[in-house]
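Complex record, two chains
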Amino acid sequence: MIKVNDLIKSYSIDGQKFWAVDNVSLAIGKGDMTSIVGHSGSGKTTLLSLIGGLTKPDSGSIVVDKENLLAMSDNELSTFRNRKISFIYQFSSLIPTLTVLENVILPTVFGKQQPDGVAYARELLAIVGLENKMKVYPSQLSGGQQRRVAIARAFINAPELVLADEPTGDLDEETEEEMIGLFSSMNKNKGVTFLVVTHSTELAKRLGRQFKMHNGRIEEII
Amino acid sequence: MSRLNITSLAVKNLRRKIVRSLLLFLSVTVVTGTLFSATIFISSMQNALKIGTYRLGADVLVVPEKYAADARSALLAGEPTSFYMNRDILEKVKSVGGVKKASPQLFIKPTSFTCCYNVNAFLVAFDPTSDFTITPWLEKNLKKPLSGNEVITGRGMPVMAGDQISFFGTLFKVVGTMEPTGIKFFDQSIFMTMDAAYKMAEDSKTKSMQPISLSKDEISTVLVRVEEGIAPDRVAIRIEHDVDGVRAMASDEVISTVRKQLMGLLKGILIISALLWILSLLMMGFVFYMIVNERQRELGLLRSMGARKKHVFGLIITEAVIISGLGGIAGLISGSAILMIFKDAILQHLKLPYLLPQMTFLVELVLGAVIFSLLTGILSSLFPAVLASNMEPYEAIRKGE
């Protein structure tokens, strides 16, 4: 599903070059549940963004679902993201002017809208336990509830790959369990591939393959 | 749930900061309203001048030298006046080279003592045997000449055909009403034959408390039509040279004086409107730049969900189009309302004629104003929209955090 080779991404901060991703290579199979652990600033989020086509590397190659992301035009990349990749962020990523239901359905605006999109959004909200909050706005939800809406939104376009950045960061234990259960269910039933960045070694252990990042370099934990 | 699309997203975004949206809306309203009302106002005055010139039908107006200013005020602002000169002048004018036709007219200013009906009415008497300004209208519309006690009135007079109206103790019958011109000289005048006017003057000595001092040897003005191919101002110069004690005004000259006055007004309005527009463009551009800046993360998130550059660009432009379109419509409404409220006061001050242009022109003007307001919105948001659409999604999300 994901094949990354010799990936390098650097930034200049105050004239000093900083390698966020330093010569990273990894391969993740279709339907895998993989985690990347590491401290803040180790390059996990940058790597996730590179794999999701949100930014371009200095060098290297990224192939997702047999498609070379670096050879795609901006429009092709957008369509690819819309159809195949979803992101779950560690911050509140909901649009404040939209209701919960509208937030979930938002990604369909940028692609081919399915006639049963709203029904599926309701179904997803029911799965994350927010079926009675569809018409409320994000500001009326707790942080945990907002995260659950974002998770429901991640599945609206039936993605093949979910890139999650600290998806259970501020969830209570019970909700965290439910979310991991949802990921596992999506993985088993729909074959969705997960690449999850987390601080939590506990979560990482439960997901399957584990990688560790440090100073932009990656190694697999066996 | 209503269908979610770029337009509904834009509407929801505009509702988010209602005060800011209102400010943008008001700035477009003010600019469009100012330009629209100014254009209508000036077009109406130009239209009135055009129609008035055509209605006057004369190339040169000959008046007593010391009453030139009064004659100009009478023609342009419809201010009733009375002045007289000797009828001999008519023959002298006719003999001047370049004069094709010459016809006398009498201007009589009624007073509250002499007119039982309307003190603002302006009595104009013409000679049906030589007239070339009123008579063609009579032939076309009334299909008969005026008899002794018959008058026709301008559209501004509150009388209709069949009504009777009294001046200086003489009763007249209204037989027709002329179409509106916007020029008070025509719209608030009552036209009669010179014979009727002289008889009214004679009878006023016994019938009126304030008789008219007018003899059959006196006329107020001579209207001149010049030979084809000869410039009216050249003929006017010749008349002034050949005939003592008169001022000959080419109608072009009368109009050009007003045009100059109008151009000054137009220039002032244009400068103010251009400044307002530039200010509005800058303010809107700055506000949209701020909007893009503060929504960086949101826009980055939309891109991560698969929004293309054109979606982000379209979202910002749609917000601008909605706000400027609504502002434009509000500008049209408020501009029209302000014009209606203050029109009379301004005209009173400027002493200029006014007549709304034709409906087709007004429709074009309304469409133009809407397009102008939309362009204002699009232009002001163009740079921020390009900026927003070209942001790298990851950078937008990261910087917006």
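Note: The interface with chain A takes residues 1, 4-6, 9, 12-13, 15-16, 298, 300-309, 311, 392-395, 397, 401 of chain B (CB under 8 Å).
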